[in-house]
Cilia- and flagella-associated protein 43
Amino acid sequence: MCVCNCSNTCFFLSWVQGFSNKNFGFINNQTVCYSCGNYILFLNIKTKKTTALQCQTGQVGAFAVNPNCGVLAFSDRKLNPVIYVYSFPELNKLSELKGNIQLDYSLLAFSFLGPYLASYSSFPDFVLSVWNWQENILLCSESQPGVAATSMSFNPMNWQQLCFVTESSVTIWHIERNHDEHYLIQNPVKLPDRQGSLDHHEDLFFPYSCVEEPYHGPVMPVSAIAGLVGDEAETFVPRTDIKPSLHPTAHCWTTTSDIYLGCKEGYILAIDTEKCSASIIQQKPLSVVFTMAFCNEGLYTAGIEGVLYFYHIRDLQYEMKMCTDISEPISTLIFSPDYTILLIITDQGTIYSYEPAHGGEAVKLLNAFSSYLLAADFLTLGDKYCATAMACCPSSNSVAVGTKGGQIYFIDVTKVEAPRVVHRSCLSKFPVLSLHYDQSGQFLIVRAMEGYIFVLDARPSKLFQVLGYSILEDPPVFLPEKIIPSNQFGSGFICLSPNSRWLASAAKDGVLFIYDTSTMEILAQNYCHSYEGGGIRSIIFSLDGKFILVSGESDGALVCLKWKYIQKMMHENEQVPDIEKLGQQEFNLDVEEQERAQVEAEQEVARIREKIEMEILANCYLQDVIKHECWDSMCVKGRAVKCFHIACEVENYPLKKRDEEELRTLEKVLHLRKIEAANLKVQKKVLETKSETILFKEEENTEEVMADDTASCCLVGSLSSQYGADTSILYHQLDLHSREQKVNQIVLLKDIIYKVKTAFNKEFDLVAQQKEQEIARIKERNVKIREILQQLDLQVEVWEPVFPKLAANTLIVHSLNIHILHFSQDSERQRALNDMMGGVLEVTQEDILKIDIPPPSFISKPEDEWNDQEKKIFSEYEEKVKELNEEKEKYRRTLKNELEELEASIQETTQNFDKTVCKLFEKKVNLEKVVYQEELKIVNLIYSLLLDEELDSRKAGLSHFLVKKQKEKVSYHLECLGKICNCSTISSETFVDVPANLLDELLELYKCRPSRSRTCSVSAEDYKDALTHLMKAMDELDNPEHMPNGLDPSIWESFCLARRNKFKSEQLVKWMPLILAEMKVFLQRRIDDNEKMSSKIEKIFQELTWLQEEKIKFQLNLTFQFLLKQGQVELESAEIPDYTDAIFIKKSVIEELNCNIMDQVEKKIASMVECKEFSKGIFQLEWEHKKMRMQIEDLNQKAQDIFEQLSYDLMYLFYSFENAQLHKKNMKKHQKRIKELEKCISLKEQANYELSLELKEMLVSVSERRHISQAAGELQTTKRRYQEILKKKHLRGLIEEQKKHLEILQAEAERLRSKTFPIL
């Protein structure tokens, strides 16, 4: 392949390297082909030879192969792309398919039978098209906006079925034909969800057939509830109902026209293409299935694990075995046309061959690279090996590589299989732009950013030292001797050949230009890369000038161009001396290898850090939002009051402050209601007739019911009027017909609820304040109770109520909660006081229980040794002990009585408060009932508004759906077939000059037909192929050797022409019934579709009519809320009563009768009330009599108790009067002592605070000294180890010296010994 632009130079494509694992296919049993940049590469798997086909218009896009016909198709990547079809191995262009696609084709697929090609375009068209590539005809197309496909294939057994796969769906397209017309019919396949269930598909646009609930009204679909009316209403699915389906990754057809489908979740499905249903074969998900291939023996699958599996499937049962392990992610499996070889392609660009019939391991065929190229260059040792981002030294086997960090790496490539870094030089912090050796390889010139130019010694013996550098501050000066305009676009660069005779120019458009440096004429050009792939990244000449390496920016292709001077340049090179001929020259590489691993790691860390920070920020924001909405915005915070002894709790109503918009709306509605009331009063004055008067009375009665607070609440529907709410401003429930009235009613009901809750919160605050007071009183009494318990030495837990605090105060620490231990300075005095007098100087009544009379000192002696004086002292001691014990017992009883009184007081107080809380709880229950009643009204009103909107949305959605279906409904017409005359006899007028004997012979020859005849199919292409084949067979019958003897040759030619025409007519007659049958089948399908469409349209009309009726019924049939007493039940009238035997009575008679009835009823009620009051008086007198008798008994018992306690109380009062003065004196002393102790406590607190500060500083200094000590210990250990190492090293040196000295001495001794030996 060559591209020539002048008379004496041209380009020849030498080779192309690169691999794309996306497009791959067999073109015959020995050759596979794949795309690479601007080329299609053909690899012979037997000989390993590669040939290339260049796309002249840019980079290769979509790609497909048909091994049955030996053709391939590919698209280019440009504006308005074209599909090219080539033959193999001739590589002749067969056709160009031009459509209306704007940007690119994403998929191509050949049919196994027939000349059909399917294509699918990408953004923005997304069009599926079917072509006849032989006739260059677009048969049909269908647009699918926004649908990106992943794979597509024809049914090998039936070209009229096409499998279309996306990331989340599978569609079977049927190609229906009506003679010369083709249509694409879509049949989506319902895939299971991720759990393998197939029951998650439901039609949400038509989920019911006019269902209506008796209370809530008609049931609307979710699309109407969501308010959708356009195309989205047909496909809308609520988020809660969305069950993600499986994600297809690979598919293949079976011999029974079914499909096996591999999924990302590890499932394998079997798809019935006729029913468009999926069944799960593999229930237990394995690894991700990336690719699969089918043959008669079974199914082969592979994926990310790199293992090739084989499935032998029968119905939905299978047997699985592992065939081979590649240990690399497998991306493609493909069988050869004869199904003897299975090629395995990995993500890394490696191709393996596997023979299913023989089994065994897979054999590696090709190991190509599949990533992007940075740059390429020629090695000085030859042109066999290529390196990226490098410059090769002509004088040594080294390579210089520049980096983005300003460093130069020198790599030894003496062994090309194992290169190694021998030196690294850091020149600057700026990225290296280019490296260039001089021709002798003595110097290396480095160009970096910011105008830095460095000169290095390129010899390894000099360690690549830097000789100097320069900074280009001024702009470069150009000598414009000759300006050559360029036809390239985008940023570009140039490259000079080693002999400085050729200049290569490249840019983002992907076109390579070669200029003669002496004349600046274009010698050659080649479109080796495309602008879609980023254009050309690097160019380098070989030292001999025969080859040019060109690498792409992002298409992954490396192109080697071989070019020559056919006449002039080769002749000049031969004439020059050997020293001037092409030799090793320097080359320049502008792109260096970046340290991508570190950069990618830093980017990943930064991304994760940013992600975590954003999550924290989002959580903080959510916290602030929740706190603001649920706490800060509340003008009344949520609180609760609990009973002391009962499991009863009452909560207040948390309320938000009403905003200005809400208050303005309320004011507007109240103003509107006042206007309506004034309008009603004006209407009253206008009414004059009797009927108008009656109407006026009815309206007045209605208004009075609304205005009177004492009226019945049954018609109002709530008890809010009994709790201070003004219900006169509300609309009557039977007057709420319009939307505005319902909205205003909702605003008024919300205002009533707010006022009721506010009134309750005021009562709640009073009860909460009362509880705080009660708790304070109880705490005061508990102090006295603890003192009594301490005096009685009783270990009883004191009940202490706690008032719940708000959450905002739970973390506040008060000074009262801090306990400090105080130490007394006068410890000796305090200990003596405790030992002698219990810690007090004076004895009070509270301390009487602590007093003990010390026994006499002689108590330890026996009684018979006591004298009279001692006996007298002991008797006095016993009397004192007895008196003291009696005093103690009296005081204990006094304390117990006081304790019981305090506990009884607390119990009575708390019980009374519990009763208050219970009453508040009962009121809260009633208020909850009122609130629920009002909220029920609001809910019913809101539901009515929503239902009205849903009916409107459903009507609009159905109307839109109806218009769309009416557009789809088309009429089909059957074209008339032309009549074909079937002439079975030969015209005698044509052969009038033929003798009769020859005429009979010609008649027999006229009936002759070729022995080899094909069965004609319906397809026009098959018909033409069969007819061409039969016409070739007719050539044998038209041979002159079959001509009868004596017949004129001109007559024979006319005879052969007539016979051919007759034969064509016969074939046409055979073909036309097939066409007619096909058209009838197509027509019947369209008639069935038309009937289905008509049935759908009729159902839509019926539902529209039903919706209109329901809306009228809904506007008239209002929801009325009644309040019924307990025991009353509202019954539904199942049937209308029969009024055939009813009579008419005047209204006045009925009213008079009703008045009489009411009078009698009132009299009866009055007598019943009188009887009830009399019986109530009898029961009340009996109860009072029983009460008085019980009071008499209680008074008698109390009098007896008073007499028993009288003596004890008199003695207690006498004792208290004597000790009153002593008690006051002791109180003054204790108060004085308390003040002294408080002063001492304050001084101790200050001292303790100062000591705590000193303690913190001392702890810090101790910690620092500890760390210094540890560090010093480690340093000493390190020094000691270092000294030991030095000592060992010194000892080794001494050993070596002594060893050498010993060897010298041994040698000297041997020499001396040899001298003393006698000479024999």
